[in-house]
Amino acid sequence: MHRRLLAPSALAASLLLAIPASAADSSPGAPGLGDPYYPASGNGGYDVSHYDLRLKYQPKTDLLEGTATILATAKQDLNRFNLDFGLKVSEVRVNGKKAKVATSGDHELEITPAAPLQKGKALSVVVRYAGKPSELKIGGYTAWHRTPDGGVAAQEPDSAVWWFPSNDHPLDKATYDVSVSVPDGTQAISNGVLQSQSSKLGWTRYNWRSNKPQASYLATLAVGRFDITTDRTASGLPILNAYSKDLGDNDGAARASIERTGEVADWLTEIFGPYPFNALGGYVPNVTSGYALETQTRPFYSPRQFANGANISVVVHELAHQWYGDSVSVDGWKDIWVNEGFARYSQWLWSEKEGEGTAQELADYVYAQHPADDAFWTVKPGDPGPEKQFDIAVYDRGALALQELRNEIGDEDFFQILKGWPAEHAYGNAKVGDFVKYAEKVSGKPLAGLLDTWLYQPSKPGAPAAAKARTARSQAAESGRPAQSVRPAQPKSWKKIAATNTIHDHGHDDH
Prior knowledge:
Layout: H1 8-18, H2 21-25, E1 27-28, E2 46-58, E3 63-74, E4 78-84, E5 88-94, E6 97-98, E7 100-104, E8 108-112, E9 122-131, E10 144-147, E11 150-153, E12 174-183, E13 187-189, E14 193-200, E15 203-214, E16 221-224, E17 226-232, E18 238-244, H3 251-258, H4 261-272, E19 280-284, E20 292-293, E21 300-301, H5 312-320, E22 329-330, H6 337-354, H7 359-369, H8 392-409, H9 411-424, E23 429-430, H10 432-443, H11 448-455, H12 465-479, H13 494-498
Helix pairs in contact: 4-5, 5-6, 6-8, 7-8, 8-9, 8-11, 9-10
């Protein structure tokens, strides 16, 4: 090797040239993505493409040990960036080099790499950590369910903070490999396909892969003693369902509902288009909560969902979210109607299919149930506010808006929209306004005024004349009474749909 000697001044100049120009201009990434409902959620300055989580969990003690490898790309010149996480971290490395770590707020992990990161460059972040998720409280609650035989992470709008570091906002989706080691006789359930499992020295490792972009709150982990059933859909997609071995009297009803997952998914493909992911199923752990959640590919169901017997309607709702909410996710949490209004309307469509009440009959019944002075009408599904994000009006009034859209543009355009929207925004994010524009594009009609009335006005809209007259005429004909004195009859499916209302109770009282 020929070595060239440099004078001190020349050496200094060469070193300056070797420092990337961006290093001098680098700055910290924002500690939040600016969501008006949850300003601290997510982080700026980078975009994650993949999470590799290698975990070990001991059910007896609730101790979770983990190594998270996060692959990302810098979106600006960075000298510091944040991750959202609550457990104790022992070490962080960025691009192989040890980084400085500090904490702030409820769940901010501040990472200063050994050298600034250039915009557009790939980076790897390795985080080693350990802790007991059930002992972590943020805002007075935990999203981690401690069960008699393990633990479960499933909550909205966030649960990742309790079990892995992330950029915790739906705007930054990524693919996932989740590998979990648990004591023999215990199972670990997560998203996607179970790639493999192996046992060694009293521990069994389960390797899961979710190969399509997934929001962090839709990642799930359940450790416990489960009975697992497997099958395939007509198109060959693997179905894996898991039931706690301690469901008691709810066991039969849970199985009678969730074992129809393949049937429901096949029907939904007729409505919403091809299923967007690599697997499907559901799981029912032994938790005391009452809600259900659309965790990607494998929804979480609380046993209480089946306390009154089988209920396919809740399965319809959570599987509909695989298109509306999981594949197409909110741009900001104020856009929750794009998730929940459509999942509720899918329950109305299932009722229509089953001959238990048409979507119009359900819409008429909901409309008649709530007088003009009911607080129900003050909730704006298009922007309900963080305190009302999961209010029943977001679901029922949100579904009413879709029925009015269907009446306005006709079935052909309406169902073209239901199928086209998930394809238009597959694996991405969208706003309520994006949907309005898309519906106008497909139908060729101005729809902003109609949807503003049903989604944004804090008052009861006037009953559409056609629907009002139709309902009154049909009820009058059956009863022999004047049309104006007749209220819509309760559709046969109503009680089943209403029984799923607790899926919206993401309140923290149960956790």
